[in-house]
Structure formats: structure tokens, C-alpha cells
Amino acid sequence: FTVMTTDMQTERMINMRDDAFNRIPNDGNVKYRITNIENNPYDEIARIVEGFMTVPMYLNMRIPDPLVRLVIDYNTDALKPIYQGDAEFAFKMTIPNIVANGTMSARFIEYGHGLFGSYNEITSGYLRTQSDTMDI
């Protein structure tokens, strides 16, 4: 059974997304720094790029912890997470062979590792195969 409307379930995330987009410079230039580039790490992957990007943060702490929460002021607007400044977060990007060799154009996909995953999960076998066959 449904206990919330779609709007009730998504409004916080949409408000946070809209606020974050408004904080990105008009030229779209998000700050990032590359820390490692690895060529041909796997049969399906032409390159892995690792680094950090600076993005708006709405969490009460930056480190992974069971107590991490969105910062919300329930007395003013419980549906608008509160901007906590910018923070630097690690990323790992894989570039599949079919994109690197020009066979297919790329579609960008963001993969979150979830609660029980890991930072390196993006390079696991089934995801490498999917990226090289589905141009993602």
C-alpha cells in the first residue's frame, strides 16, 4: 500500500538538486582534480580516471557513518535540505573501449555503490561488461 505521494517522496531531493544546480557557476565549470589515470586496466575498459570534485553538500558530516543525515530545519521547511557549503568527494570514472575507440558515443551514467557496496564496485566484472556493450 502507498503511504506517501510521489511529490512527498521526492520533493526534498528535487529541492536539493535545484539548489545545487543554482550554485554551480553559469559556465558549468565544476571544480575537480584528477589524481590518477590508468590505461587499459581491463579487457573491457580503456581507461579509469580517478579524482575529486567539489560539489554542494547538504549532509551533517562528510565521512561515511551511520549517523550521516540531510540537514533539515523542521521548524522552517522540512522539505528543503540546508546547504552546508561545498565539499570535495572522490569519484572513479570508467571509459569503455567502445567509447574510447569511437565505435559508439558515450552516455554518462552515475553509479552509486549503495549501502553495502564499495568505491571500487564500478570496476566489477558485470559492470565492466555492461559499460562496454551498452555504451554507458
What does it look like?
- β1 (32-39) and β2 (45-56) form a beta hairpin.
- The chain is built from three helices and three strands.
- By secondary structure, the chain is of the alpha+beta class.
- It has helices spanning 6-23, 97-100, 125-134; strands at residues 32-39, 45-56, 86-96.
- 24% of the residues lie in helices and 23% in strands.
- A three-stranded antiparallel beta sheet has the order 1-2-3.
Instruction: Kindly report the spatial arrangement of strands forming the biggest sheet.
Output: 1-2-3
* Main beta sheet: 3 strands, antiparallel
Radius of gyration, whole Å: 18 Å
Compute the number of strand runs: 3
Q: Treating each run of at least 4 consecutive H or I residues as one helix, how many helices?
A: 3
Shape: globular
Overall helicity: 10-25%
Q: Pick out the low-confidence regions.
A: none
Average per-residue pLDDT, rounded, comes to 87
Task: Tell me the β content.
Answer: 15-25%
Report how far the terminal alpha carbons are from each other.
Answer: 34 Å
Fold topology:
Layout: H1 6-23, E1 32-39, E2 45-56, E3 86-96, H2 97-100, H3 125-134
Antiparallel strand pairs: 1-2, 2-3
